[in-house]
Specification:
Chain A is an alpha+beta fold and 345 residues long. Chain A is built from 10 helices and 7 strands. Helix content of chain B is 29%, strand content 32%. Chain B is of the alpha/beta class and 244 residues long.
């Protein structure tokens, strides 16, 4: 708040100062070439105001022109157009003011090429300043966003680890293994292997900002397999991955919390058998994943979807600058989340 | 023989218990149930004297299931969570087994029950769940005849004290629960529920208007058309709740 005020005040002084400097400089110049002081000051006032007005126009227009994006043509042409208009308007105004003064009109016409050159140089200079400033700001913003994304990824990893390493998942699995060891040692072995593979994938350190979908998929498969062993016939898993999606990329650990939600709200929200379905498809430039679980509308929207859905939405927004990548639908007896991950080729 | 029942939603959790219990000659497993609803029905029918209960189960959890059982058997909780231990002992559980548990640890729990049984009829688990509930209540379970009703708190219109019971008014009708209004007042989210009278708690989202009669008598009208009296103190609380 106070910063804004400061910058507003600063702005005012900046404009007044520039106006003063321009008027002083130009008046001296015009006086030097033989006009009297009053004429010189009036002349330079007109041009100084016009120059500052064009600067304002450039300030407004340039944010929509990204030289690094659209090329430098616009940045070259704008000042030329403005220069011609400034000199044209300036001359009109001055002719109107000093209509009867023949010697001044002569001076005005003689000085036109010089004026053109001066205004053009001035406006090119200003353009350069504005463009550089905008570009720097853009870079800075991009960097800011990158750090945010990194932070979110790290947070997701941390949350995920805490969640996984939250003892109950491990302990419940160990309890299941304990039950299997005596009678069905083969299944016990299978479960130990899944548990080991799963944890190894979960604590891998080299997770960058994106990983292959194949890896995320493998983790989900392992996770659901263990849950299936625990809950037996009550849990059915329906997984389908379209061919070609395995090489697509996504931010690490993006889907895992959503799958866990699906399990949680499916298994603990209804009494009947539960079918969890995870479908991955590729459509134009997107990897699309739909996760569906049964749920009981009478319970209300499941609490705690909060972290899962919101964090996924936020991470995708930070990465791709879009808000339309996460959709969810609650029907009478099932709940579905659809995630689309843009593939930047 | 000690007649035992198991209530757990994971089949493998049943298996390990059964395997361990097989060795105890004085134990007979007479019931295996896979959720709280089955559990309530089964326990009513078979009347076990000792039950092993998981906490995280579909729809209603282990604590909520115990609330709805009339002749409470001895309770041993079996769970992977350590966070409920305090609450478990507050509802007078005999023991709290953490998954995975060893044969020896189960033996200890059974030993506890045996000594308990010998030293006279065990005064077991009259569940006073309210004080154990530290977090904000999200749902209430009630039993009407053989039906079990799970009421999400946001569906409650108002609560009224009726003798030893609290009448819970919902769009589906009125349900009675053996508890005091005070326990509800402590457990419900104070942002939405206000005790406006010695005998009433209302859901603020249901309020349509507040009327003042002569002699400072006040009433609130609810969406359902119900008219609830507001005491002087209740009026202050109501005002504070709407102001915040």
């Amino acid at each position: 708040m106070s910063n804004d005020l400061k910058s507003k005040r600063f702005n005012k002084w900046f404009w007044m100062g520039s106006l003063g400097v321009l008027i002083a400089g130009m008046s001296f110049l015009i006086r030097y070439y033989g006009q009297d002081w009053t004429t010189a000051i009036q002349d330079s006032c007109v041009f100084a105001i016009l120059l500052l007005a064009s600067t304002q126009v450039l300030l407004i227009v340039y944010p929509y022109v990204r030289p690094s994006f659209t090329g430098y043509k616009a940045a070259l042409i704008f000042p030329v157009i403005l220069t011609v208009s400034v000199v044209f308007v300036g001359r009109m105004v001055l002719e109107w003011i000093f209509g009867g003064n023949i010697s001044y009109r002569l001076f005005l016409d003689h000085s036109l090429p010089l004026r053109l050159a001066f205004v053009l140089l001035f406006l090119y200079g200003i353009s350069l300043l504005i463009l550089v400033r905008n570009e720097v700001e853009l870079q800075w913003e991009r960097k800011e966003r990158e750090t945010m994304t990194d932070k979110m990824t790290r947070e997701a990893e941390l949350f995920y680890l805490r969640q996984q390493l939250q003892p109950h998942f491990l302990f419940n699995s160990l309890n299941s293994i304990n039950a299997l060891v005596g009678k069905r040692p083969e299944e016990a072995r299978d479960m130990i292997q899944s548990l080991a593979d799963f944890f190894r994938l979960a604590i891998q350190k080299d997770t960058g900002t994106s990983e292959s979908f194949a890896k995320e998929w493998e983790r989900i498969v392992l996770y659901l397999r263990m849950e299936k062993m625990r809950f037996g016939d009550r849990l059915q898993v329906d997984m389908d991955m379209e061919e070609g999606t395995e090489v697509l990329l996504l931010p690490p650990l993006l889907l895992q919390p959503l799958v866990e939600n699906a399990i949680k709200f499916g298994l603990y929200g209804v009494l009947e058998k539960v079918v969890i379905s995870v479908k991955a498809t590729r459509s134009s430039n997107f990897l699309q994943v739909a996760i569906r679980n049964p749920y009981d509308a009478a319970n209300g929207l499941p609490k705690g979807t909060g972290f899962g859905l919101e964090s996924v939405r936020r991470r995708l927004y930070l990465l791709f600058g879009r808000n339309d990548l996460v959709k969810h639908q609650a029907h009478d007896n099932w709940f579905e989340v659809i995630i689309r991950i843009p593939q930047l080729a | 023989m000690i007649r035992v029942a198991i209530i757990d939603d994971e089949p493998l959790a049943h298996e390990i218990l059964l395997e361990y219990l097989k060795d105890a000659e004085d134990i007979e497993v007479i019931g295996k149930y896979f959720n709280g609803f089955e559990g309530i029905k089964g326990i009513q029918e078979t009347q076990p004297e000792l039950i092993f209960v998981d906490i995280q189960m579909p729809k209603i959890n282990g604590f909520e299931m115990l609330e709805l059982i009339d002749n409470k058997p001895g309770v041993i909780f079996v769970t992977a969570y350590d966070t409920y231990a305090v609450k478990a002992f507050e509802v007078h559980a005999l023991d709290y087994l953490m998954k995975p548990f060893s044969r020896e640890r189960l033996g200890q729990a059974l030993g506890k029950y045996r000594t308990f049984r010998q030293s006279g009829p065990p005064e077991l688990s009259r569940v006073t769940y309210a004080s154990a509930e530290s977090e904000i209540l999200e749902r209430v379970v009630v039993k009407t005849g053989n039906r079990i009703e799970v009421i999400p708190v946001h569906e409650i219109m108002y609560l009224a004290a009726e003798d030893d019971f609290v009448a819970i008014q919902t769009p589906k009708g009125k349900f009675l629960k053996l508890r005091t209004l005070k326990t509800f007042e402590e457990m419900l989210d104070p942002r939405y529920f206000v005790r406006v009278h010695r005998s009433y708690i209302i859901n603020l989202r249901e309020v349509t208007r507040i009327e003042n009669y002569d002699k400072g008598r006040q009433y609130v009208w609810l969406k359902s058309g119900a008219q609830i009296p507001v005491s002087k103190q209740g009026g202050h609380r109501l005002k504070a709740a709407f102001d915040s």
